Structures are given as C-alpha cells and as structure tokens.
Amino acid sequence: MNVIWRKEWTKKYETPWSIIEKLSFANRVERDDLLRVLGGGGIKGIKSKVIGDKRRDLFDLNGFDDELLCRVLELDILDLNKHTINTLISPLHYYRELPHSWFYKNIRWCTECLGNGYHSWFHQFTLLDSCPFHGLALMEMCPNCHNHIPFLVSNKSLDMPFICKCGYIFADFSESRWRNWNKQNIITDEVVMKWLSKDNTETAGSLWLFHPRHGHLKLLTTEHPLITSKPFIIQHTVKREETRSPDIKRKIFVANREIFISVQRYILKKLKRHHQCISQLWELKKGDMTEFPEICPYAYAYVFWRKSLLELDHFYRRNIRGDDIDPPKNNGSGMVVTKIIKDELHYLVEEFTRQTKKTNDTVREAALIWILNRVTGEFSINFFNEWFKIAGEAAGKEYAPNSTEVERIKNICFPKIAFKYDVSLKSPIECISLSKPREYLYYKCPNKTLQSRKKLAQMKSHLPSSIAIAMKGLGNPNDDNKRLQAYVDRYVSKF
Ligand SMILES: [Zn+2]
Ligand SMILES: [Zn+2]
Ligand SMILES: [Zn+2]
Hints:
The chain has 20 helices and 6 strands. By secondary structure, it is mostly helical. The strands form 2 sheets. It has a 4-stranded antiparallel beta sheet with strand order 1-4-5-2. Strands 3-6 form a two-stranded antiparallel ribbon. The chain is globular, with a radius of gyration of 29 Å. Residues 110, 112-113, 131, 133-134, 136 line the site of one zinc ion (ZN). One zinc ion (ZN) binds next to loops. Residues 12-138 form the TniQ domain.
C-alpha cells in the first residue's frame, strides 16, 4: 500500500483528529474509506455502508487496526494518545471522573493552529478555554453555519478534509499543500506550563474539589487563594444545630436554606426602594376594573430569580400566608432549596465525601457545609445579576425565558470555584474563584412618583388561589368573576 505521509506531520499534543484529516487530504481518500482500509477486523467485516460512532472514536481508535495505523503513520499513535491524555489529567488522578469526561465531545479549535492543520488535546481539555500556543479563545462551532463538529472520524459535519458541510474552510491547503505541516508550536500560556510541570506527588498531601464542568486550570495553578476557612476542628464544637440533627442530609438542607435566606435578605435590602413593586408582581396586584400595571424591572429580576433558583411552579406567591420555601424533609429527598443547582451540589457532596473518607465525620461535615455555602452564595448572587440583565426587556415585553434559556443562564452563573485542602482537614481550606466583573445597569422604575405609589398601595391581590376560594364562596359565580379569573389566568400564562 502506497501512502503519502511524513512522520514530522504529527506534532506533540496533537489529536488523531487532525492527523486523520491530513492523511485524508494528502492521499485524497475519503474518511470512511480510510476507516475501511486501515480498519481493524471489525470494520473490514462490515458489509453495510454504515459505520457506528464507536468505531469512529479517537480516544482508543477502536475502529483502526493498531499495527497498520502505526505503520502508516510511522508512530505509535495509541501510545501517544495515552501518554498525552495522562500528562494532562494525571494531577487529578484521585477524581472519580473517567479520562474521557475531561475532554469535550465536539471539536474545539484554535483558528491559528487549525490553519496549519494542527488540532491539540489541549483544545479538547475541559479545563481550558484558550489556545496554550496562541492565547486565542477556542472556537466550538462553525462561524458560518453554527454547527458543532463531533470529535470523531466522521462526515457528520464535514465535507472534504478541513472543510465544513456548509462550505466554510477551516484550513486552506490548496496552495501551500503540506509545506507548513511540520511547523512546531511553542506553549506560551504560563498556566499550562505550570500545570505540565506539576509534580504529581504534590497532590498526595492536598486535594482539589471543584465541579468538572465549571473548573479551569487557572484555579488549580494559582498560589493566591481568595479566602481561607478556619480549620474546622474548633468550629464544629460550637454549633448546636449539629447535635440536634445528626443527619448530614438534614444539616445540608438547613445550611442551604439559611444561605438562601441570607442572600435573599441581601438582595431585598439592595432593592429596598422597590418593595412595593415586588409585592405588586409577586401577589399579582391590580386595581379594580383595570389591567395589570407595568412591571418594574427590579421587581421582575427578584421575582423570577427566586422562582427559577428555587424551581417553584409559579412566579407569583403560592398563598397569601406562609412562605413557599420547602421545609426540610425527613427522607432526605429534598437536599437543598436552591434546586436549580441541586445536581452540581450533589456532585460536590459525593466527591468530597469520597475524597475525605478517612477523616473524622464532624470535621468533614462542617468543612463540606462551608464549601457548599460558598458555592451556593456565589451562584445565587451571579444568578440574580444575570436575571437583572434581562429584566429590562423581559419586564417590558411581559415574558419569561424558557427552560433551555434558564439552563444556559444557570451554566454561565455557576462559579468557577475550587477548594484546596489537605485530607486530614487540619489546616484551613483555600478557596479560589474566578469571578466575572460586574456590569452596572440602571432601569426606570414605573412606580417612582408618589402618585403611582399611592395607586399601588390601593391595588388588591389577584392570586389564582384566592380568586378560586372567593368564587367558591359565591356559590354561583357571575360572569364578571369568571371573566376576571380568565383574565388573570391569561396574564400569568404569558410568563
Ligand atoms: Zn493555537
Ligand atoms: Zn459550517
Ligand atoms: Zn420599582
């Protein structure tokens, strides 16, 4: 078999994805034909045209005949893959994540690197968001058709090598051919250099805790913690709550509820000039025979922040009396009140509990709660700021984002935060967080004048629960009441 290939076309930290693209380009062979020619026994035996994703995998190169592939590329690519992946993730060896999960499932790339036919494992690594060679932000979808490209030997999103299905050219070798394929790249990112130089034994004493989807190498290489906790040995003896509720799930619930209430108090204090606006929206207040008034953006931000953070059914108040925050449940099913991040918090609980298995229970429980409080507090405030950003437009147009949009907002608000601690928890826990700069926005409140405030004060609540009760009391509700109920239902369904 005659194959055009040079050893120098493969570079350090390169993924097989760009290697296969180059191989396909140089030999004018279509990807699936490459898979069939270089395929292991499994693929060669496949008569049908369909090759499943499992055989298109680029981690273990399942679909290829190892020996044949290594001979063609003049290098042990499987070994290179393993070695590179291990170099990147070995400092996190104590995490329970599978190696694959530290890497994106779709291609992310640096335009500069890809322009020269190079794609790196660094670009796929979930703890990085810029190219360590060029410092450029990584791309994750075609700038023309906005499609993702799966990290597979696949024609799903690609046409010819390095060309998107839509025709967009990621790398143009029509003139240069392969002249630049052996150009070497140099790592310039200090964070990455530090990470690669890390002695793996360093982690024997201290561990990291963070959510893999919201981590960053910057967090794990910094020597300047944001804050540190006190050691928990002294602290836990003072807390009385713990002796009253021996169940850790309940303790987590109680602490979470407390942190939510204090963030809420902090926000309400900031919004003290809009308390009437808030109660108007939250209690669906309006005047007799009039429509619902214009919504104050400050009130909108608070009411919808609260509703989505707690994952409540309605934005308006459930009942006139009592609050709508769930009480602790004895079966442990309701772990937190800030339900929108329950999975993320649950992950941290599991991972921390696993990592600190051998530590004294009371000490690690106190440490865990301290950690969860940091994450929840920071998230809740970021989340409010994000709701506030959209409040101006959304309040005016009387709508609320759908669940996909809320999920997106949640993901950008989840703090990039990491905790460093020693397993014995005898020294303080360090907390490092990459916080985003805050934007300051101002909106016009529709209830600024004394006159409009007076009007607000006279409005009555129209909560669906109270209207229903009132109608029941009437026995035979008249048309006016029915019309009112229909109007309120229509109004709340807009959000
Ligand atoms: Zn680059
Ligand atoms: Zn495209
Ligand atoms: Zn207001």
